[in-house]
Amino acid sequence: MVNRCEIFCEILIAILLPPLGVCLRHGCCTVEFWLCVLLTILGYVPGIIYALYAIVFVDRDQYFDEYRRPLYYSA
Q1: Hey, which end of the chain has fewer CB within 10 Å, N or C?
Q2: Are 47 and 39 in contact (CB under 8 A)?
Q3: DSSP three-state, residue 69
Q4: Could you tell me the pTM of the whole model?
C-alpha cells in the first residue's frame, strides 16, 4: 500500500515532468510511461492529465511482476 506522502510527491513530480512521475510509479518500459511521453510531446496539459490519472487511479499492484518492476516498490 502506498502512503499519502509518496502519492503527493509523485503528483508534484507529475505536474512538473509528467513522464517522470509515471516512470516512478509504473516503471520506464511500460505502456503507461510511453503513452505519457507521447501525450506530453503532443501537448503538456494532456500529459499532465494522463500522468495524474495513471498515478491516482491505475493500480500498479495488479500489474506488478519481475519484468515490469518500477524504480521503487513499497511492500
Answers
A1: C
A2: yes
A3: coil
A4: 0.73
